[in-house]
Amino acid sequence: MLFNFGPKSSxxxxxxxxxxxxxxxLFKKGKQTDNSASKWLSLFVLLCTLYITPFMLGYASWYxxxxxxxxxxxxxxxxxxxxxxxxxxYTQSLLNISFKLSKKQYIHFVPAFLYxxxxxxxxxxxxxxxxxxxxxxDGRDKDFDLWYQIAGLLxxxxxxxxxxxxxxxxxxxxxxxxxxxDSILFKWLKHFFIVFLCILLLRVLFFILNPEWGEFGRxxxxxxxxxxxxxxxxxxxxxxxxxxxxxIGDIPTDTQEPETIIVPLEDKVxxxxxxxxxLWKQKLLDLMLLEKLYKNPSLTVxxxxxxxxxxxxxxxxxxxxxxxxxxxxxINYYRVEAVKEQLKKGVQENKTLLGIAxxxxxxxxxxxxxxxxxxxxxxxxxxxxxxxxx
Length: 390
Prior knowledge:
Elements: H1 7-33, H2 36-59, H3 66-74, H4 80-95, H5 110-129, H6 146-177, H7 187-209, H8 220-250, H9 277-289, H10 301-307, H11 312-323, H12 327-344, H13 353-359, H14 365-376, H15 380-389
Protein name: Helix-turn-helix domain-containing protein
Keywords: DNA-binding, Membrane, Transcription, Transcription regulation, Transmembrane, Transmembrane helix
Pfam family, one: HTH_18
């Protein structure tokens, strides 16, 4: 098989090989753990790998031989209309453990399906119906047509915006329903969005610098940059999948750590005008000050509602309207106050700051530091210094 191992083709080959490997590993992990997010990410990595394939093979001289050139011509490697929807559904499946692709949502794949039909028509016409090329009379790969590349760019921008909206909605719900929001914000996904945005900005930049998208000469740096970015996504995505599967597999479902608890995206919290608001506020204060419910690191709004024999919606409304905070900040406020009381008593002489924080309901050092700074405008160490001065 023809493959000229030049500097450009060899570098892209390395990324191609790793992309195939990570795509397989992610899919395997998804099958083993029944994790649909891993399967969607596997497909995303595979699509990115196929995206660089024509240029890798082009630099390896495939376009210079008839049989290899026709493989590149008639195989739609660059599925730019499919990458966006896959990102969108990966986001939903990662944030919502109950997410299932509905029949209605298959409409998102229609543009990519139509392009496959278009590619098939070209293949049948040029190879079977006519004795000579009609669609490929110009000798240019249809995957690189400007209209298709621009359509792909617009599609990816559109689905990135949709994915960001899903994530923003998820963040809002998490802060309203659990006391450990920092632990389930999926910071990896934020990094994914940033890297994907960099990919889109690169595409725009190279469109401007070289509008002749089918020309190989000045495209190498774009494909090299693209390869490095999607390689980061593959590597980081796989490592985060491993971490998640370990925590889930090692912990019984009735005592899950916060990292493994997913809040359905369909749950929405709305404010209502409540009778006896002062009475409910006092009940909440009693739970915090007398029963010290905040010490439960996995506390949710449903747990509080169960203690008060009411609904999560009512508790959220009381916290929002009565205390002007979301549920996460409300619980962390009392945890911070409890830590401050311990520090004033000098408990830090025998315990570490982290040990005190964990006893007061925090589940990590990072969450403790952020919450303490938010509610006191001081870091824990700065608070100790100020305490000693007074």
